[in-house]
Amino acid sequence: MALVSADSRIAELLGELHQLIKQTQEERSRSEHNLVNIQKTHERMQTENKISPYYRTKLRGLYTTAKADAEAECNVLRRALDKIAEIKSLLEERRIAAKIAGIYSEAEPPRKTMRRGVLMTVKALEGDEQWILAEVVSYSHAANKYEVDDIDEEGKERHTLSRRRIIPLPQWKTNPETDPEALFHKDQLVLALYPQTTCFYRALIHAPPQRGAPCALPEGVAKGRGGC
């Protein structure tokens, strides 16, 4: 899919998603009145300490309406989720198409898709290489190099680097329950973030999080995946 065509479709889908979100709120507001009536009816029944045929019939009608309202809201939410899935798919197709095209041309700078952030490697004072967090500013097709900014507010240094010294960061998080590869495995080599810094170090995974436990990988682990 052409990049311009993908951008146009994504913009169209975002507009449709916005309308679905508004529709969801309208459905929810419309059902609130019926839910209040259900609560009040139960309160009256408790006060009178009996279930008369009148209340039984009334509650049956109220619950039928509540069920229909809930199904209508669920249908809108499902349509919204479908739009989100399509947007994510188009963004991934766009990324792949741009990569195949040679990581952009001068007329289409890479910052439009890579501004989200990258890891870059720089030489430390001691001569060792360090990986730090950065953002792409521009790309020179002729020189085959990126200009990137160190995101550390104290530094704000600009570097010119080749592709091999940059790792694009993932855009999306994945669910470990549906995508087991979202989690790194024991003894797997990763880049982990030093606490309270924007610098990364090479590390080995000691143990992945247990199923059902909060996601607790080493802070800032980054190896090109979308797992938390």
Automatic annotation (TrEMBL):
- Taxonomically, the superkingdom here is Eukaryota
Known PROSITE patterns for this protein? SGF29_C (PS51518)
What InterPro entries does the entry give? SGF29 (IPR037802), SGF29_tudor-like_dom (IPR010750), Tudor_SGF29_rpt1 (IPR047288)
Segments forming domain SGF29 C-terminal = 110-228
Entry GO CC: SAGA complex
Kindly name one Pfam family recorded for this protein: SGF29_Tudor
Please give the name of this protein: SAGA complex associated factor 29
Q: Which organism is it from?
A: Cyanoderma ruficeps
Taxonomic path: Eukaryota, Metazoa, Chordata, Craniata, Vertebrata
